[in-house]
Design a protein that fits this description.
The chain has 10 helices and 14 strands. With about 325 residues, it is of the alpha/beta class. It binds phosphoenolpyruvate and manganese (II) ion.
């Protein structure tokens, strides 16, 4: 349930109302906007008398929220959320480029790529140390050593690290990671999502291969309801009958999600297409469509990459794309 307060309500009256609602056993999510204060009521609201609340002098309107997601619902939180990663702001008009290899392979590789993407305008770097692979015989990442190499690249460049966590047991290794990525295959690993809710760290939650937007939002809700509101969503392509691309980039998910949630929306055109030459046009389309950022795979030697070489841009290709992205941003912002 949403309670919108009248403009200019005193703090004292607001506190009295909140205390009364809390006494009914509800959790109250307060969103203080520039023009209005919105109270999001989480819990069993069936005992709340809507007419009574609506009749209160300080209340402007009351609405029942029919969607099952509350914490990540824009109705609860009309203003877009800004997720901060160090000095980098993401969301509410702050656009971010995240770039780097699919997997961390060596110190030289990750440092070279991190320097190149930084020079091109990326403000966060990506790189997988724990890799979910379809085949058990494929390279599955350098694991703890990969995380150490990412930290070396961060020291060299100042770029914060975005890297994937697959298993709760590895969580202690991720203490010094800036953004934890939850991959498509783990989007509905509910125990993992609950644990992420206990952290004070931004989470990049990727949409599952065959998951609906509502399911994606419910997964974000798991993290937020457990206490961590710093969640970014990532559209990375879904399974369809399209036969020439790895996945199908669901571009309309971007404006739809912006309507449904206040969380930042990042687009991954690399996994969505699987083909390096298709990455720039889809990255530009996503930028034009209102994405808050892009996550793009970049490798200094894609032909010899241990993972996802076919969809990886060379550093110079990323630099050319980044320039065009900035031009599109100028038009749409
Ligand atoms: C990745 O980012 O390298 C990755 C494995 O992504 P996804 O979970 O979207 O497949
Ligand atoms: Mn990849």
């Amino acid at each position: 349930m949403i309670v919108v307060l009248k403009h200019g309500v005193s703090e004292e009256k607001k506190a009295q109302l909140i205390a009364w609602l809390q006494a009914l056993g509800l959790r109250i999510h307060i969103s203080d906007g520039e023009f209005q204060t919105v109270l999001g009521l989480v819990g069993d609201t069936s005992t709340v008398d809507i007419d009574l609340v609506e009749s209160l002098e300080i209340v402007d309107s009351v609405k029942r929220v029919t969607e099952p997601f509350k914490m990540c619902n824009r109705k609860f939180h009309p203003e877009s959320m800004v997720v901060e990663v160090g000095d980098v702001k993401i969301g509410a008009g702050n656009f971010v480029m995240i770039a780097g290899p699919c997997s961390v392979e060596s110190e030289e590789q990750i440092v070279t790529v991190a320097k190149a993407v930084k020079a091109a305008g990326a403000s966060l770097m990506r790189g997988g140390a724990f890799k979910p692979r379809t085949s058990p015989y494929d390279f599955a990442g350098l694991k703890a050593e990969g995380l150490e190499l990412l930290k070396i690249a961060r020291k060299e460049t100042g770029l914060p690290i975005v890297t994937e966590l697959m298993n709760i047991n590895d969580l202690p290794l991720f203490e010094d990671v800036d953004v934890i990525q939850i991959g498509a295959r783990n989007m509905q690993n509910f125990d993992l999502l609950r644990e992420l809710g206990k952290l004070d760290k931004p989470i990049l939650l990727k949409r599952g291969l065959a998951n609906t937007l509502k399911e994606l939002l419910m997964s974000a809700e798991y993290i937020m309801a457990s206490g961590n509101e710093r969640v970014m969503l990532c559209e990375r392509g879904i399974r369809t009958f399209s036969d020439y691309t790895r996945n199908t980039l669901d571009l309309s998910a971007v404006p739809m999600l912006h309507e449904l949630t206040h969380l930042p929306i990042i687009v991954d055109p690399s996994h969505a297409t699987g083909i390096a030459r298709l990455v720039p046009p889809m990255a530009l389309a996503a930028t034009a469509g209102g994405a808050d950022g892009l996550i793009i795979e970049v490798h200094n030697d894609p032909i010899h990459a241990l993972c996802d070489g076919a969809q990886s841009l060379r550093p110079e290709e990323f630099a050319a794309l980044a320039e065009k992205v900035r031009a599109i941003r100028e038009i749409v912002k």
